[in-house]
Amino acid sequence: MSGHDAFREFDQSLREVLRNATEDKERIEGVRPLLQKLLSVPGLLPPAYRRPHADKYAQYLLYKPEDEAFSVIAFVWGPGQQSPVHDHLVWGLVGMYEGAIVEKRFRRVDDGSDASRAVLEEIETVTASVGDISFVYPRQADIHQVFNPFDEVAVSIHVYGTDIGKQKRHIYDLETGSIREVITRHDNTRAIYA
């Protein structure tokens, strides 16, 4: 199956899930097998996009429908590269396509009354390898940090309930407790599978 065919099928199936699901947990459970199938498509990420940047991970938009109801992103993690601690403010799934990453998950333990500060508690650290899928959704499971402590490049495929390259989100400083608003734009301006 070609990448274009895979995304055509993925789009149709995901829209069916979105029509029937009323809560984020239902969306995640409905999308999980669709992402699992996408992770099995050989050559989904063309070779030109399989290299991280020298100083940070790469973020490539694979697919986004015109209505931006969701987006599919490839993150390419070089050895030693990591994300800041961040949230998403939308449901999403993270599937491992190649290599492995470590994900630290956090929860907010303050009352949330100060929009510029937060107290976070680390709740779990997991290692994800090829075929593994995790998820995020607002409030209960939305804050994490991803890093690649291994010697090989890792590729993760993410599905979000919006164009995450336009989504306002937050970065959390664990030492100071400060919160900063951010938009993490894609490294490519046009989806690979447009």
From TrEMBL:
MF-aspect GO terms: ferrous iron binding; oxidoreductase activity, acting on single donors with incorporation of molecular oxygen, incorporation of two atoms of oxygen
Keyword field: Dioxygenase, Iron, Metal-binding, Oxidoreductase
Signal sequence extent: none
Domain of life: Bacteria
Residue numbers binding Fe cation: 86, 88, 144
Entry coiled-coil feature ranges: none
InterPro entries in alphabetical order: CDO_1, RmlC-like_jellyroll, RmlC_Cupin_sf
Family: Belongs to the cysteine dioxygenase family.
Protein name per the record: Cysteine dioxygenase
